[in-house]
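User: Could you check the structure of this?
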Amino acid sequence: MQITFSVRRGTLSTATSEKIQAKIEKLNRFYDRISSVEVMADLESKDFPELTLLLKTEPKKEFVVQAQAGDLLTSLDEALKKMEQQLKKFKEKLTDTRPEQKAK
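Assistant: Sure, the predicted structure tokens are below.
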């Protein structure tokens, strides 16, 4: 999985980017065909930084989540919860094996 960072109106420390990367790598537990994740942080408001995650999977599917909270890592946690829900729902649709009912 390739993880890229882009930051608007500020900079990320190396320690913060490593923490973010470690948390994002845990998404492989929910769906193992993730090809890349783009992390976009807007640090204009230091009180409420905005974080956007763009996740791309191998069968050409994209997932986007946004979160805004008191600090960057809290924003990341909220965004990851949203992303986990989207990935679980997507995987459930892929593995749904109910037989289709035919009209009589």
